Amino acid sequence: MAVTEGWTPSPNQNGLAETEAQRRLREEGFNDLPRQKKRGAARILIEVLKEPMLLLLIAGGLVYLAIGDLTEALMLLAFANISVLITFIQESRTERALDALRDLASPRALVIRDGRRKRIPGREVARGDLIVLGEGNRVPADCVIIEGHDISADESLLTGEAVPVTKRPDPSGQPPNHRRPGGDDQPIAYSGALIVRGTGLALVFATGAATEIGKIGRSLAELAAEPPRLQVEMRRVVRAFGLIALLVCGAGLILQGTLRGDWAAATLQSIALGMAMLPEEFPVVLTVFLAMGAWRISKARVLTRKAAAIESLGAATVLCTDKTGTLTENRMKVAELRSRAQIFDGMAADEASHADIARFGVLASARTPVDPMEKAFHDLADDVGGGAAQSFED
User: Fold this and answer.
1) Containing H/E element for 204?
2) Which of 63, 211, 216, 326 is packed most tightly, with the most Cβ within 10 A?
3) How far apart are CA 227 and CA 236, in angstroms?
4) Could you please report the per-residue DSSP string of 138-184?
């Protein structure tokens, strides 16, 4: 994690020396956001085997094997293996998919080191790096813009507001004492923001967990996960049945041994009686249904890191959301068109005058737009001309 205090930015526009950048990465860590530790195959298997219902199946199978009932033992152990296998495969696939998504989502950065521009992975950006910002770039770390022209950034990832905010360069390179995302004319470009207009140079002052988005990730990582209610109830059932079975075993052992005098036979019979009272089918049914739920929502491109989350999702009765990007699409759209004294619904633009307005909007925008408003102009041109935005430019 980068240290954000106690340093003075250098006016040297050659950027960091490569050796200094590597030293800071070794001492302060890579520019990675806080996240849960990667779950390998061994960890996933241990977590699956810690479930009390699966432990019950395995213990029951071993007991039947010990008393010589091979059929019951193989049946219970087979059920346990099926349950473990289904859960293990589902969660392993999800972990691999999440790792691939993290790699794809990691931005690359254009930095100046030893006086030369160099494209590097975002996680290798070090505190004090001089980075080049341009339209369409994702900001890799919190930085102060020291030079720039007409810079605007989309900070909706941090604030939820899709409208870009303008940036005002500060040649001193010193981050303000009181800073927060959102608001115009700040000199800071925050990690995760998208540059939608302009170009500039910026000096990195915070990386990794020290960034604003890193602080959010750190707070989320500290939250304690509450187990699903179905899982809690199942564990309660296991404990209750286990206690009852233990009492019945003890009573049966004492009665059989006292009345008949054959303590060996009484032990086997009491164990068999106790095992018959345990609900061995519960873990199989629970695991299969959760795995089916994870498979079904995976068709909608939703990844389930833990199968138990399916029960929590199914038990939800109220969803609380904010507005931008959740209930809305986090993008702009032309609502209406005005031509002289006339006002037209932007959704129903089909006249020649509408095509002219759409053409002017496209010509005033970038050929490949990044700014949300310019994207809205291109979408309007496509709607009016049936995919004619490119032809308008030509």
Assistant:
1) strand 194-206
2) 211
3) 13
4) BP-SEEEEEEEEEEEEE-HHHH---S-EEB---TT-PPPSS--S-SS
For this structure, is 322 an active site residue?
A: yes
Burial grade of 49 (CB within 10 A; 0-12, 13-18, 19 or more): middle
Neighbouring residues of 270: CB distance < 8 A, sequence distance ≥ 6: 248, 249, 250, 251, 252, 253, 256
Residue 20: pLDDT over 70: yes
Q: How far is CA 369 from CA 116, 164, 196, 347, 377, in A?
A: 28, 14, 8, 21, 9
Give the Å distances, CA to CA, from 162 to 39, 131, 210, 333: 35, 24, 24, 12
Please, what is the Cα angle at 281 between 279 and 287, to 5 degrees? 125
Q: Cα torsion at 302, 307, 309, 314 (round to 10°)?
A: 80
Question: Rounded to whole angstroms, what are the CA distances from 211 to 164, 201, 243, 252?
Answer: 20, 18, 51, 65
What residue type is assigned to position 22 of the chain?
Q
Q: What pLDDT sits at residue 349?
A: 47
The DSSP line for 324-347 is TTTTS-SS----EEEETTEEEEGG
Alpha carbon distance 187, 109 (integer Å): 19
CA distances from 148 to 166, 302, 322, 394 (A): 11, 40, 33, 30
| Residue 256 phi, psi dihedral angles, 5° rounding | -65, -45
Token pair recorded at residue 301: 């491109």
Q: Using CA atoms, how far apart are residues 40 and 18, in angstroms rounded to an integer?
A: 34
Q: Is the pLDDT of residue 7 over 50?
A: no
Q: How far apart are CA 236 and CA 231, in angstroms?
A: 9
Of residues 322, 350, 356, 394, which has the active-site annotation?
322
Question: pLDDT of 33-86, one tens digit each?
Answer: 766 666 667 777 777 677 666 676 677 777 777 767 777 778 777 777 776 777
Burial 277-294 (b: 16+ CB within 10 A, else e): ebebebbbebbeebbebb
